[in-house]
Amino acid sequence: MALASNSIGPIIHASDPWSPSPRRQLLDERKRARLARISSIVRFEKNDRIYHKGAVAEAVFSLKSGVVTTYVPIAKTSQYVTAFLYPGDIFGLSEEGRYANSAKATTSAVVYRVPVAALQRLLGKDADLDFDVIIKLCEEITQAQRHARILVQKRAVSKLAMFLDLQERLQTARGEAGSEIFLPMDRTAIADFVGLSLAAVSRAFRALLTRRTISCRDRRHVKINDRADFESLIGGDGGLSISRGGA
Amino acid sequence: MALASNSIGPIIHASDPWSPSPRRQLLDERKRARLARISSIVRFEKNDRIYHKGAVAEAVFSLKSGVVTTYVPIAKTSQYVTAFLYPGDIFGLSEEGRYANSAKATTSAVVYRVPVAALQRLLGKDADLDFDVIIKLCEEITQAQRHARILVQKRAVSKLAMFLDLQERLQTARGEAGSEIFLPMDRTAIADFVGLSLAAVSRAFRALLTRRTISCRDRRHVKINDRADFESLIGGDGGLSISRGGA
DNA sequence: CGGCCGGTTGAGTACAATCAATTCTGGTGG
DNA sequence: CCACCAGAATTGATTGTACTCAACCGGCCG
User: pLDDT digits over B114-155, tens only?
Assistant: First the structure.
């Protein structure tokens, strides 16, 4: 019992798209051990770059703890955030051998670094592992489509509401239940994720606050007071569900 | 030699994200034959629904010919288009056992229908097949992120330019080289894909036409005249590359 | 105490949404 | 071959919303 069972190798957290099962850790001990043998653990401090777009993609990553942001730099000043990653997520997607986006640590973070060459060798052999990866990639696709869904919204309050909703669902899916939504990223990152200016995000927060739809303990802790009003902003659909542990 | 080699089973067209190789058909004859045994061929006429969001996802699909659109219905009147699919693409992604979006034929189309139960059995055994699927899913992720990239743009002409650029790249990646871009979908579908109103798309086309940046033989055939101006609208980056057959 | 960074707020502007009227296009039947 | 029709697409006028730019606040660190 020297090491806790959650400390021996990369993890992949996801839910099977083909059955209504709860989100869970996909890799069993054997696979984690096998991956552990070819990977290394790297720690990053807040704001550290993990890799940058265009660099030769020699490794993929599995997030062990902390929060990581992937983004595409645009011009010199602005960036477009593609995703916020949490423990159990994998990242480091490449295109033609080069990273398709940049990644940086939003909080201090610990990641497993898996060289692609070694990973490919494993993937070619172990159909079980492949299957787990397939499941995770399917989840990433729905995540990206969910993101797109936020971006098409035109009203700022709707975008913000959908963003908060997304974060809340991710949080409960991770098992961090609680009535408050925690936002590890700053307002600028939110703006770059939902496709608004920083000013617009700020105004949208203000609008939701004065409507008493939400309340903030501080800048990073949000609570939803008027659930009905909140849902109405999302567009009546609510069709974006993420499998939670319970139901 | 009774049947041409391209007619015996599902196809998956994609390029390996880990090496700068051209886009190609991933599945070898053996795998296609194996998939063919568990799948059926279905033909859809223009505007036929292939499946709809929320239905139990019993099968995934591989597009053999034609163009398919996936979308999410919003309210009664509007929809949000998630992707335009071409031969060699796979679709039918589910979430908790139900389709995450709807799909319909944009032109008449022929698809391979693969029941998930049978597919899962194959995937659990054949690591090679799994690997091909992983490659394709990686491509779909970058596609979704590219789509998101279009949606964040604020100016209508930029969105349209990026859309045209995307279609052109897809076209050359498919090997259908030619100086004209062919748009199999109607203006409404374009509007729903780029996140604009139909009117705004129309005005954006007009703007590009009067600027002589593009010209249209008819509504579905576009040619880019002023490449420099065109690129400038995309945001100077041009960072969205899709591997083409040649380079 | 001062500066700096992240965030908020204000005023004016630009751009796309909306609604509605009109034109274009492709298909059908005389 | 042409007249006609229906749906798709264009265009116009108006309105709304978010962007921009810029000033201002508040906490944190030196």
Answer: 999 999 999 999 999 999 999 999 999 999 999 999 999 999
**A9: how many CB neighbours lie within 10 A of its CB?**
22
Q: What angle do CA B79, B85, B86 make, to 5 degrees?
A: 150
Q: Are B120 and A18 within 8 A, CB to CB?
A: yes
Q: Which domains does chain B have, with CATH numbers?
A: 5-147 (2.60.120.10), 154-234 (1.10.10.10)
Tokens of B215: 């010209």
Judging contacts by C-beta atoms under 8 Å, the chain A residues touching residue B128 are 124
Supply the pLDDT for residue A6.
Answer: 56
Task: Find the Å distance, CA of residue B177 to C1' of nucleotide C1.
Answer: 68
Q: In strand D, which positions have an atom below 7 A from any protein CB? A: 8-13, 17-22
User: Do A22 and A244 form a contact (C-beta atoms < 8 A)?
Assistant: yes
Non-local (6+) Cβ contacts of B99 within 8 A are B51, B52, B53, B54, B55, B57, B92, B93
* A95/B17 touch (CB, cutoff 8 Å), yes or no: yes
**Residue A236: its pLDDT value, please?**
52
Q: What predicted TM-score, i.e. pTM, was given to this entire model?
A: 0.91
For residues A39 and A31, what is the distance between their CA atoms, to the nearest angstrom?
12
Distance CA B199, CA B207 (A): 12
pLDDT at B10 over 80: yes
Nearest nt (C1') from B206 Cα: D10
* Strand pairing report for A180-182 and A68-74: unpaired
Q: Is the pLDDT of residue B105 over 80?
A: yes
The helix or strand, by DSSP H or E, that contains position B35, with its residue range, turns out to be: helix B29-38
- Across the interface, which of A21, A137, A239 has its CB nearest the CB of B141? A137
**Strand C: positions under 7 A of a protein C-beta atom:** 6-11, 15-20, 25-26
Q: What's the rounded Cα separation, in Å, for the pair B174 and B14?
A: 10
Query: What mean pLDDT do residues A132-143 have?
Result: 96
Using left for φ > 0, alpha for ψ between -120 and 50, and beta otherwise, residue A9 falls in left
A1 Cα to chain B: minimum distance (Å): 32
Q: Which residue of A has its CA nearest to B129?
A: A127
For residue B6, the model assigns a pLDDT of 56
Triad A39, A49, B145: Cα angle to 5°: 85
